[in-house]
Design brief:
- The structure holds three protein chains of three kinds.
- By secondary structure, chain A is mostly helical.
- Chain A is 76% helix and 1% strand.
- Chain A folds into two domains: 321 residues, no CATH class; 27 residues, no CATH class.
- Chain A has a two-stranded antiparallel ribbon.
- In chain A, helix 13 runs antiparallel to helix 15.
- The longest helix of chain A has 27 residues.
- Chain B is globular.
- Helix content of chain C is 40%, strand content 26%.
- In chain C, strand 1 and strand 2 form a beta hairpin.
- Chain C is globular.
- The chains are: A mainly alpha, B mainly alpha, C alpha/beta.
- Chains A and B meet through helix 6, helix 12 and helix 15 of A and helix 4, helix 9 and helix 11 of B.
Chain lengths: 359, 292, 235
């Protein structure tokens, strides 16, 4: 008996328990939020959660490990198509489908990751971009398997009966997505704190130094690619459930570029950056298309306004907050802390110029 | 055999366009270490400007020159106003910035010029040339495409290899700090590099528009294939860009012709990965490696 | 000629130079000595505009230059041979040399300067059309100095020319430079870790330690001061 307790103590490191606690609180808050909002907003919330999974994985690869991928949309496609094919004519439990889709994407990611480990910077960008362009075409080519341009339909996950007959399916989708996203974040958070996470960073910062320190650079890069692909596969699987349809058009280059732009805008190299980026990714187009339709513009202007604004947001964000929202917030926090500390030492009769009243 | 000739000629014409695009990307990469993902969108925009001029009654050649000049100016403005301020930011930022610019231009074009697909005139006949009784699948416009890309490349070669200005531009691209110590105004050279590269891109946009038709995203695939070509040849090598771009043209033409056009991009992907597995820094990377 | 007054340079919180002052007379060689990390390279990089000082001033012919861009300073006639030589390896020897004086409007004299450079450093003439990465270390050093000289500078900043060079080659190069100082009134600021050889060619010298000037005197006198030699110059 004591041995078991001791084992638990070892497993439950301070970081892990902190992450678990945070995730639990977030889960309860988000469920409460989800129950208060309408079906459409639940649908949006689910989208954010799904993108969080994909961008968190991508941020681990690009932000933490330094491998640029412009093709993560294609790995999401692998997850989505796995799900759609598994559910074709079968009724498999959700958790099994998720895990199998994750495995499928990891496999593709491992193969590609081995190839990618030799490539650097723009060469890796080019190879992954080619993946994003090329892979969806396979779906069109082998349309008898993948359903061609029309794609494959996916039934929405059914809410368990104990939630009541009129429980909105969008809300159930949101709950699933939120739960999976939080589990992913906790797992990734622990991975980043571990020696594996440190070796990811070491390889990014200085390959030669990492190799000298005994880190197998190529293997580390492949591992990062596989973990990141697993996340993309998971997100892709949920995306298939969420949209109800898996078609090549949904997984074009645009998706891959949205993912990479999300992590840079949110903040490279941190999980919170992935969360911020996903919020921007989902809400900016939502907001701008609502605005465009309410403005009564000519259709050629109104239809393109959201794209224009999204592009402009990317450009301006790079000029104004080069380290992303996460970096900007950290800076504000540091400034506030400095102010606080400054005020604390200053209050013996010294006037704080920013706050002359001394309040 | 006849099919092979058709595909080869087709590959040559398209390849010259990809080569021009690849060259534009390589020129910018060498000068500022930026992959300009907005290169295709910039060319799209200047081609729309040419169409705009044509519709206002400008003769073809005037519209042609207007588009090239606008490309030149657009490149300079983008470098000076957008790219220079993010020089010291993390390298991914400028990637996102050019992606943002791509979206802005692709949204702006339909707002200004209308979103429907437009045809774009060609300077010469697009019917195959007749040699005696034989009609070859190679039109006067194909010939014009090939010749104008070759002429532009020759001019650039002269500029870079034979003039003081070209020497300054090369020095600024290789080592900005040393160049500044030698009294070279590096900022101006980089702006000029972007301007010239965008002019090359604008030419590619004008030349491919008659066959692809004009719509806001028509240059996207040209950009992807041009980028693939540049990577294939090695991003630091202008001759590599030309070879890589031409190879892409041939490869896509053969894959499309023998295996079906829906496998074109998959074929490109396979070729790119295969080449990168053997030469991770492109075909003509030996020079860059030796220097480092 | 070149006057440095109270120059302070910092990289973020790290102070690299603190209130450094000295002046260099026209037609003389000033050696700047000190151990690794003393701030020698920072000093020349600040003079040529690559590093912005936090405070203090740098005057060249009574003109304040500490806020000018490096390319503007080069065009005033201050040549800088950087540490590690800064040869553009992808360009040919001749292209490297031409770059030196490319900003000058006197085209005829640019040609003259080129042939003078080949006369001064003969090994370069034989390799004029080869890419610079084929050169040996000594030849690269020659090329870098010849390139700076072909702009006909009035001040030459030499950063560690002895690094990685056989002493015989170094002696030859320094002899050539000494010649130019006498013939053309060239002013040289010579950064060296190898104090003994630097003091043998310099007229005056300053010794830097942790960013401060700890000694400033005629080179002859510094070389004979036992205590200083042991403490800072290591011979």
């Amino acid at each position: 008996m004591p041995a078991v307790v001791k084992g638990w103590r070892l497993l439950l490191t301070p970081t892990l328990s902190r992450h678990l606690g945070l995730a639990l609180v977030a889960f309860i808050l988000l469920l409460l939020l989800s129950s208060q909002i309408g079906a459409y907003d639940d649908y949006t919330l689910a989208a954010v959660a799904i993108f969080v999974i994909a961008t968190a994985g991508l941020n681990l690869l690009t932000g933490v490990n330094g491998q640029l991928s412009l093709g993560h949309g294609a790995l999401m496609a692998v997850g989505a198509y796995s799900t759609s094919l598994l559910l074709r004519g079968h009724d498999l439990p959700l958790i099994l489908v998720l895990l199998l889709s994750l495995a499928g994407a990891s496999l593709v990611g491992a193969v590609f990751g081995v190839a990618a480990a030799r490539l650097r910077g723009p060469y890796l960008a080019g190879a992954t971009l080619a993946l994003a362009v090329g892979l969806p075409q396979i779906a069109t080519r082998y349309s008898h398997v993948f359903g061609g341009e029309e794609g494959l339909t996916v039934p929405p996950p059914a809410a368990p009966s104990w939630l009541g007959a009129d429980f909105p399916p969008e809300r159930w989708m949101a709950w699933i997505a939120i739960a999976v996203a939080l589990v992913t974040l906790v797992l990734l958070g622990n991975l980043l704190q571990s020696s594996v996470g440190r070796s990811f960073k070491a390889v990014r910062d200085h390959e030669a130094a990492a190799a000298l320190a005994g880190i197998n650079v190529a293997r580390t890069q492949v591992v990062a690619f596989v973990v990141s692909s697993a996340c993309a596969g998971l997100a892709g699987s949920l995306f298939a459930y969420w949209s109800g349809l898996t078609a090549p058009a949904g997984f074009g280059v645009a998706l891959s570029l949205q993912l990479i732009s999300a992590i840079v805008i949110g903040g490279l190299g941190s999980l919170s950056g992935a969360v911020w980026g996903s919020i921007v990714l989902v809400f900016v187009p939502n907001f701008t298309s609502g605005m465009a339709s309410s403005l009564n513009l000519p259709s050629s202007v109104g239809n393109n306004l959201p794209l224009l604004i999204y592009g402009a947001v990317l450009v301006v964000a790079m000029l104004v907050v080069p380290y992303g929202i996460d970096g900007g917030l950290r800076r504000l926090l540091a400034l506030a802390r400095a102010r606080w500390a400054g005020a604390a030492t200053n209050h013996k009769g010294v006037v704080d110029w920013d706050d002359p009243a001394g309040s | 055999m006849q099919r092979f000739v058709v595909l080869t000629l087709n590959g040559l014409t398209e390849g010259s366009i990809y080569a021009a695009m690849a060259l534009a990307l390589v020129m910018i990469w060498r000068a500022t270490r930026v992959v300009n993902f907005a290169q295709g969108a910039m060319a799209m925009f200047t081609t729309y400007l040419a169409l705009f001029s044509l519709e206002r009654g400008a003769p073809y050649w005037l519209a042609f020159v207007i588009a090239l000049l606008c490309g030149f100016v657009l490149g300079a403005v983008v470098e000076r106003v957008l790219v220079r301020p993010v020089e010291s930011a993390p390298p991914l930022n400028v990637v996102i910035l050019t992606l943002g610019l791509l979206l802005v231009l692709e949204a702006l074009a339909p707002m200004l010029f209308g979103g429907q697909i437009r045809s774009f005139p060609s300077a010469f006949s697009i019917v195959g040339i007749r040699l005696g009784s034989l009609q070859v699948p190679f039109s006067s416009f194909d010939l014009f495409t090939l010749v104008s890309v070759l002429v532009l490349m020759a001019l650039l070669l002269l500029l870079f290899q034979r003039t003081d200005l070209g020497l300054r531009m090369r020095a600024a691209a290789f080592n900005a700090e040393v160049s500044r110590l030698l009294g070279i105004r590096v900022g101006r050279m980089l702006t000029l590099g972007w301007a010239l590269a965008s002019l090359v891109g604008a030419l590619a946009g004008l030349l491919i528009a008659p066959s692809l038709l004009l719509y806001p995203t028509y240059m996207d695939q040209v950009l992807v294939f041009g980028f693939t070509g540049a990577i294939l040849g090695g991003l630091d090598s202008p001759p590599g860009a030309v070879i890589g771009g031409l190879s892409m043209g041939f490869a896509l033409s053969y894959v499309g012709g023998y295996f079906g056009s829906d496998l074109e991009t998959v074929g490109a992907l396979v070729i790119l990965i295969a080449v990168l597995m053997v030469r991770p820094r492109g075909l003509l990377a030996w020079r860059a490696q030796r220097v480092v | 000629m070149l006057e440095i007054v109270d120059l302070t340079v910092a990289y973020g919180p790290v102070v690299a130079l603190e209130r450094v002052s000295f002046r260099v007379a026209e037609g003389s060689v000033m050696a700047v000595l000190g151990a690794n990390g003393a701030g020698k390279t920072t000093l020349v990089r600040t003079i040529s505009g690559l590093v912005r000082p936090r405070s203090g001033s740098i005057r060249f012919d009574q003109k304040e230059i500490s806020r000018l861009a490096p390319e503007a300073i080069a065009r005033l006639g201050i040549g800088h041979v950087p540490e590690g030589r800064g040869v553009l390896a992808e360009l040919t020897v001749e292209e490297n040399l031409r770059l030196g004086g490319l900003w000058r409007t006197d085209r005829a004299d640019r040609g003259t300067a080129l042939s003078e450079a080949y006369e001064l450093f003969r090994p370069l003439a034989e390799r004029r059309h080869l890419p610079a990465f084929t050169l040996s270390g000594g030849e690269r050093q020659m090329l870098s100095i010849a390139r700076a000289l072909s702009a006909r500078p009035r001040v030459l900043l030499l950063d560690e020319p002895s690094l990685g060079l056989a002493s015989l080659v170094l002696i030859q190069i320094m002899a050539r430079i000494k010649q130019l100082v006498q013939q053309r009134q060239l002013t040289v600021v010579l950064i060296e870790q190898n104090a003994r050889s630097a003091l043998s060619v310099a007229d005056d010298a300053v010794v830097l330690s942790l960013g401060r000037v700890v000694a400033h005197d005629q080179a002859r006198r510094l070389a004979s001061e036992e205590g200083l030699r042991h403490a800072y110059l290591g011979f």
